[in-house]
Amino acid sequence: MGPLKNKDGNPVTEDGEMAELLNEFFSSVFTRESQRDVPAAEEMAAEVPSLTVIRSELEVRKKIRKLKPASVAGPDEIGPRLLQELEDEVLTP
């Protein structure tokens, strides 16, 4: 990189001098802001998806029977086939 010109318009070719010129320039155009004057972040309401609550054993049984046995397991790592095979055991918590 270089050469650069100093304030007098003279060329500067030495690495240390060019670094100093760049440092002076960037120091003059960037400001250091006080951290005390930083505005507080606005609070945002998080949108929570509504959940459908199943209330009866019959509803749970119907949902389990509608599952496709070849589907992958959910986050609980319990596959649909296992749920169907153990339907009576998982109906009541």
Provide a short characterization of the protein structure.
The chain is mostly helical. Helices cover 39% and strands 4% of the residues.
Structure commentary:
- This protein is mainly alpha-helical and 93 residues long.
- The protein has helices spanning 15-29, 57-66, 80-85, 87-91, and strands spanning 4-5, 11-12.
- Among the domains are: 4-32; 57-91, no CATH class.
- The radius of gyration is 34 Å and the shape is elongated.
Report the order of strands and helices. Answer: EEHHHH
Q: Low-confidence runs (pLDDT<50, min 5 residues)?
A: none
Major beta-sheet overview: 2 strands, antiparallel
Give the overall pLDDT as a whole number. 84
General shape: elongated
Counting DSSP H or I runs of 4 or more residues, the number of helices is 4
Strand content: under 5%
Total strand segments: 2
* Oligomer status: single chain
Structural class: mainly alpha
Spatial sequence of strands, sheet with the most strands: 1-2
List the helices and strands and how they pair.
Blueprint (H helix, E strand, L loop, with lengths): L3 E2 L5 E2 L2 H15 L27 H10 L13 H6 L1 H5 L2
Protein traits:
93 residues, mainly alpha, two-stranded antiparallel ribbon, 4 helices, 39% helix
